[in-house]
Target: Nitrogenase iron-molybdenum cofactor biosynthesis protein NifE
Amino acid sequence: MDMAINQTDFSFIPEREKSIRTKGQQMQAIQCQADSVAGCVSQRACVYCGARVVLNPITDAVHLVHGPIGCASYTWDIRGSLSSGADLYRHSFSTDLREEDIIFGGERKLMRCIDELAERYHPPVMLVYSTCIVGVIGDDLEAVCRLASKRHRIKVIPVQSSGFSGNKSDGYRIACEVLLRMIASQERILYQPFHLNYLGDYNLAGEAWIICGYLQEIGINVNVAFTGDSRCESLLTAPGAALNIVQCAGSMGYLAKRMEEIYGIPFLNVSFLGLEDTMQSLRRIADFFANPYIIKRCEALIERELAQYGPIVKQYRQHLKGKKAAVFVGGGFKAISLIKQFRELGMEVVMVGTQTGRQEEYDAISQLVAEGTVILDDANPSELERFMLEQGADLLVGGVKERPLAYKLGLSFIDHNHERKHPLSGFTGAANFAREVEQTVCSPVWKYLDGPIHTGRINP
Ligand code: SF4
Model:
């Protein structure tokens, strides 16, 4: 039997119609921030994964996953946020629930695990993540953590992140609530007028260090980055800052809003992806502090960095002009920045989607892209493959789950997520990005592939 299917036969799910738009063809707003369609594969991660993404970079905390061992595989090893000191966060502790625990309850086992970890590591904070099965059997995490806090005189905080209780965005919000709970325990707030907090950077490949370096150079101190290379103690300094800047609005927008309500700290959404956005963001931060010294230092830094990295980006642009990119990332804000960054490289984004984008972000995306660009929310592999081929993309930017889709189609790929080992933020990151795009898109390897190599769908 010939199992090969024609290239145009990608399945299309009618219930997904409202979540896919082609600019210039449909007038209705895209459907987003909704649960994934039942029976349909989704590129999104679960609630627990969303919470873990945000909280795991706290370097001196114990991260204990209450559930079967499989959930604990989402560890530091597949999300390399870097630390300048403590490395307790690199362990992945699990209660490793088995059948007997599911039948008789897992609270006792959890308490034993907490006791052992507290005695062995003496952490300042222990975060206990709930997983699907714990939500089903109804272990009382709050009560166990309260008891453990008293017994060990440390903060043991439950993260109520059962995977089925929503989608990845809910995990972000739950993590933000945990962070607020940690901060709220600080009684004395020391107000510092030229300090800010940097929200939504997880120090992948040391990116938070680059941005904090820029800010320090222009005369602004960073109390703490949420949560890249953060420590439990440094998080407590957050309420004293004069400003919150937010890089990943999808994961940390909620925390910024809540901190404005509770502590009166205003926030700015910023982006340090690409030359243009980095410049703009630094200027907006300097303008906020309205200090002539800071503004002058900011301009001097921009001039110096542009002189160094601008020509590098320009050089790669010559080879990339006219190429087409597809983008599928976690949040809308990153997608917006990437569209602008590809423009700096002379490339057009022909397909763009996100896991958790919000309506206002999709409106901005729609303003930025050209007619005919496909915009999609919470996509599945089949849709991504279909639109990458139909739109003639030369490159896909995504994360670990999107990489095989691109390679199976014989397309180049850029990891803009957990696994990368070089920074993509700031001026130096813009040059790294341009170099990586050029190296992969212009690699001679693609000319040896005779069309897409998607097994089982297209005749070899
Ligand atoms: S969906 Fe449930 S079982 Fe799967 S990783 Fe998330 S918490 Fe664990």
Q: What stands out?
A: Residues 46, 48-49, 67, 71, 131-132, 163 surround iron/sulfur cluster (CB under 6 Å). The first strand starts at residue 20 and ends at 22. The chain has three domains: 14-31+309-448, 47-184, 195-300. Residues 1-10, 454-460 have pLDDT under 50 and may be disordered.
